[in-house]
């Protein structure tokens, strides 16, 4: 066993899904032409005044309550001063000494073990711009460009306590937090687009010690898997340093996913390095108890509660319920399918199997799935009433996904109706048995494994349209004569 204990704390920044920015009316649309979603306020022009977006506060309170935080009735904005090309004001409006919420927790599950992770604080701030070191309009590679569209996009910073003890726990914390934000519909949590970003602070200390070791901060991790990989690398790196008697340097490091390693970016700043000052252009934020209670009453069913309900109401295995509730939109899709075709486990098998497989291959979201709950439910009804076989259903599903057509339309167009006529199937079976006297003799001598061969031949002769149950029954009758 290692002689060192891992100590991890995570700082998560999530962009909020408001239509306008935090202090101005500019659009928050992602992917717009550079520097088109800007105005004097978010560009930091002299003499302009910020106006707080009420929806940002609503989303922040909603998140704080869902993570069991204490929402403060009184919080204050501050200027976080630092110089960087993508920060036009040379300061970022944030919160420091008096944040919107503190002292929360959420529960993660690693294997069969549940563990609470404390949340130190949640506060509101504005996002900075974005530096483009590669730009389609300039292939020389000599210049960097600044896009201010992201300036002023509302952010929540969610800071965990240093309660995380392994890279796997860090990954599970992020997944749990992502699910909460998804169910609350406050953020789309798209790490690739930068709407969910994570910085990890990690240190090692001797087992049994109460004193924290020197920590490093790791940035530039654009997926949950990369967060885990980066932290695993840091554990190895810091362990090697400590075991060889070398000190761990407090610094910020960047994760390189291609090389599978972190590298030094800069020495780690302390809070005083940012020179926080009170924001003079914004009055203190006052949140009434009535406002908090109203939002609390409107909170939706969250992932953990929905997962438990799926287990109890639909009698699903825990694994199925966990997968189906991993996204609010996926859970809603599943429930609509079950409403139209009330066979929960059958629906679960198709959604978790065929639906999710196709979505993964297309790198798509359930909201853009061409197979609607009505499509899937109609097809499952056709299987249940023996209009088509389970094998043919796979073909129908592929065509539905490719074209968006309803199952009946596909079945009629391709002549896929299941053959359930006994006389027709008897003729086919009689011919196949006559053509294969050897396997027939083997079966009658007790080598019953040849039965599968005959089933396969019948399905091949009928192009997969024979009713499997009827084929089994008729074959047994013929072979045992």
TrEMBL record:
<dbReference type="InterPro" id="IPR014746">
    <property type="entry name" value="Gln_synth/guanido_kin_cat_dom"/>
</dbReference>
<comment type="function">
    <text>Allows the formation of correctly charged Asn-tRNA(Asn) or Gln-tRNA(Gln) through the transamidation of misacylated Asp-tRNA(Asn) or Glu-tRNA(Gln) in organisms which lack either or both of asparaginyl-tRNA or glutaminyl-tRNA synthetases. The reaction takes place in the presence of glutamine and ATP through an activated phospho-Asp-tRNA(Asn) or phospho-Glu-tRNA(Gln).</text>
</comment>
<dbReference type="GO" id="GO:0070681">
    <property type="term" value="P:glutaminyl-tRNAGln biosynthesis via transamidation"/>
</dbReference>
<dbReference type="GO" id="GO:0005524">
    <property type="term" value="F:ATP binding"/>
</dbReference>
<dbReference type="InterPro" id="IPR004413">
    <property type="entry name" value="GatB"/>
</dbReference>
<dbReference type="GO" id="GO:0050567">
    <property type="term" value="F:glutaminyl-tRNA synthase (glutamine-hydrolyzing) activity"/>
</dbReference>
<keyword id="KW-0547">Nucleotide-binding</keyword>
<keyword id="KW-0808">Transferase</keyword>
<dbReference type="GO" id="GO:0006412">
    <property type="term" value="P:translation"/>
</dbReference>
<dbReference type="GO" id="GO:0050566">
    <property type="term" value="F:asparaginyl-tRNA synthase (glutamine-hydrolyzing) activity"/>
</dbReference>
<dbReference type="InterPro" id="IPR017958">
    <property type="entry name" value="Gln-tRNA_amidoTrfase_suB_CS"/>
</dbReference>
<dbReference type="InterPro" id="IPR017959">
    <property type="entry name" value="Asn/Gln-tRNA_amidoTrfase_suB/E"/>
</dbReference>
<dbReference type="InterPro" id="IPR003789">
    <property type="entry name" value="Asn/Gln_tRNA_amidoTrase-B-like"/>
</dbReference>
<comment type="similarity">
    <text>Belongs to the GatB/GatE family. GatB subfamily.</text>
</comment>
<dbReference type="Pfam" id="PF02934">
    <property type="entry name" value="GatB_N"/>
</dbReference>
<keyword id="KW-0067">ATP-binding</keyword>
<dbReference type="InterPro" id="IPR018027">
    <property type="entry name" value="Asn/Gln_amidotransferase"/>
</dbReference>
<dbReference type="Pfam" id="PF02637">
    <property type="entry name" value="GatB_Yqey"/>
</dbReference>
<dbReference type="InterPro" id="IPR023168">
    <property type="entry name" value="GatB_Yqey_C_2"/>
</dbReference>
<keyword id="KW-0648">Protein biosynthesis</keyword>
<keyword id="KW-0436">Ligase</keyword>
<dbReference type="GO" id="GO:0016740">
    <property type="term" value="F:transferase activity"/>
</dbReference>
<comment type="subunit">
    <text>Heterotrimer of A, B and C subunits.</text>
</comment>
<dbReference type="InterPro" id="IPR042114">
    <property type="entry name" value="GatB_C_1"/>
</dbReference>
<dbReference type="InterPro" id="IPR006075">
    <property type="entry name" value="Asn/Gln-tRNA_Trfase_suB/E_cat"/>
</dbReference>
<protein>
    <recommendedName>
        <fullName>Aspartyl/glutamyl-tRNA(Asn/Gln) amidotransferase subunit B</fullName>
        <ecNumber>6.3.5.-</ecNumber>
    </recommendedName>
</protein>
<feature type="domain" description="Asn/Gln amidotransferase">
    <location>
        <begin position="332"/>
        <end position="479"/>
    </location>
</feature>
